[in-house]
Amino acid sequence: LYLRQQKEAEQRSRRLRQLRALALGDFHLRDTSGAPRSRADFLGRWVLLYFGFTHCPDVCPEQLERLSRALRLLERDPALPPVQPLFVTVDPERDDAAALARYLRDFHPRLLGLTGTPEQVRAAAAAFRVYVSAGPRDADGDYVVDHSVLTFLLDPDGAFRDCYGSGRTAEEVARSVRGHMDSYGALPP
């Protein structure tokens, strides 16, 4: 038993070191009320972060609805800490604060939208290794933005804990987040 506990402790320690090595970069954006936001603003909270855009015809609304359902499942247990959902636009040209606020009101009430200059948005996407590519414009000037379809889980230390692709159900995401919360230990300095 002692050796098993030692081995498990060493595995947890190794995993935490690996997570620290995967440290994702910071972001400097503005929320829908115009307040500046960075990753530091969310330290101390669990965060589910998704990159998308408001003109997305199908993938982004589906992902945000799945994220909202996962949050509602987690909120059923009052013993769990709240999770802060974030939506970072990959289309700052069309997604200003007002557009984000209008779009996001159809999803979870705590879903916070973030936008910025094209440079700030590109830097945020790069910090999370998110692929973004705007497609060609049609005759009306409309376009689609191709992007990675991942939801990132950040722990209260701001460290990356997991990511969820489009193949995961809301129940699976909620179960995974709960598992990370149950096994959470602050990262050593």
From TrEMBL:
Q: Name one GO biological process term.
A: mitochondrial respiratory chain complex IV assembly
Q: Name one GO cellular component term.
A: mitochondrial inner membrane
User: The organism sits in which domain of life?
Assistant: Eukaryota
Give its localization. Answer: Mitochondrion inner membrane
The UniProt record gives the binding positions of Cu cation as: 56, 60, 147
State the Gene Ontology terms under molecular function. metal ion binding
Key words, A-Z: Copper, Disulfide bond, Metal-binding
Coiled coil (UniProt feature): none
- Give a yes or no for keyword Zinc-finger in this entry: no
The answer on whether this UniProt entry bears the keyword Metal-binding reads yes
Its record classes its membrane topology as: Single-pass membrane protein
Taken from the UniProt record, the cysteine pairs bridged by disulfide bonds within this chain are 56-60
Q: Where is the Thioredoxin domain?
A: 18-182
**What InterPro entries does the entry give?**
SCO1/SenC, Thioredoxin-like_sf, Thioredoxin_domain
Protein family according to the UniProt entry: Belongs to the SCO1/2 family.
Matching PANTHER family: ELECTRON TRANSPORT PROTIN SCO1/SENC FAMILY MEMBER (PTHR12151), PROTEIN SCO2 HOMOLOG, MITOCHONDRIAL (PTHR12151:SF2)
Can you name this protein? SCO2 protein
